[in-house]
Amino acid sequence: MNGLTCLELCAGGGGQSIGLERAGFEHLALAEIDPDACATMRHNRPNWNVIQADIMRFDARPFAGVDLLSAGLPCPPFSRAGKQLGHADERNLFPDALRILAECRPRALMIENVRGILDGVFDNFRASLREKLISLGYKSSWKLLNACDYGVSQLRPRAVLVALRREHADEFRWPRRSFAPPLPVCEVLRDLMTVRGWRGYQEWRKLANAIAPTIVGGSKKHGGPDLGPTRARKAWAALGVDGLGIADEPPARDFKGMPKLTVRMVALLQGFPNDWHFCGGKTSAYRQVGNAFPPSVAAALGRQISKCLAVRKLAKVAS
């Protein structure tokens, strides 16, 4: 641990949480509304203070002085796959995040969302958000990060907002890309694809010798789990994967055709540890995986924020 603390909002199935844990942050609390996602985090990290709560009614005052406030706020208000209603969407939780920021006054803020939030249609939204952060004493910036640049075996571009108190802001640097390229899908999933002795693996691996397209999380307003709309399913088909649904188990020994992925396979492509267990039914578990912030990207950001806060802390001690 680096001696720094974190309060996380909309923690989901724990992707961002794992990354910040790797970066050395101690979670004071993790707030999440979905009971299955809460059960997932409690199962894997019994020591975490997981609070099942709607952040629209979450009181952050007991966590005043926390070092980092992090969040993976709902993406549908800004997604290109939706209507991009932004501030007019009932699922927009940025106002609640700002209220919570004012309540607990962290030294740093990190929020991830879909790349659509960086579109021109949201220029005024981001400008308004920036001004509100300035009024609270924070300097902020956005950056588009690609998960594949941090060892994750899929494209997955994500927009990240980092805001720091003015006395820390000049020390922050965005994380550099990792030196090692991500493994192709066939290598990441080899053990799971062959666990039942599938004879077709060697042929399949010729197609799946590339990284995956962006994994789609899905919305509670729609049906069961699959790997996305028609265009996404075509990209998966090019890798030899049937994207129309999620399988209950890996392909059998004599399976013919394009295999579907299991929740565990999707979790590995998202960068979750192999032993991370997801609670709830298949649809719920898949949504926890698909909506997650890849742990390695969160870890890279967390380390940069940690360095920034530590530099200022050391400078204070030296003076």
List the helices and strands and how they pair.
Blueprint: E1 5-9, H1 15-22, E2 26-32, H2 35-44, E3 50-52, E4 68-72, H3 94-104, E5 108-114, H4 123-135, E6 138-146, E7 157-165, H5 166-169, H6 185-188, H7 190-193, H8 201-207, H9 230-238, H10 263-270, H11 282-290, H12 295-318
Parallel strand pairs: 1-2, 1-4, 2-3, 4-5
Antiparallel strand pairs: 5-7, 6-7
Please explain how this structure is put together.
This protein is α/β, with parallel strands linked by helices and 319 residues long. It is globular and about 60 Å long. The relative contact order is 0.17. The longest helix is centred in the C-terminal third of the chain and has 24 residues, at 295-318. 35% of the residues lie in helices and 14% in strands. It contains twelve helices and seven strands.
**Averaging pLDDT over every residue, what do you get?**
90
Give unreliable regions as ranges.
84-88, 314-319
Q: Got a strand count?
A: 7
Q: What order do the strands of the largest sheet run in, or round the barrel if closed?
A: 3-2-1-4-5-7-6
In short:
By secondary structure, the chain is α/β, with parallel strands linked by helices.
Give structural attributes.
single chain, 319 residues, alpha/beta, seven-stranded mixed sheet, 12 helices, 7 strands, 35% helix
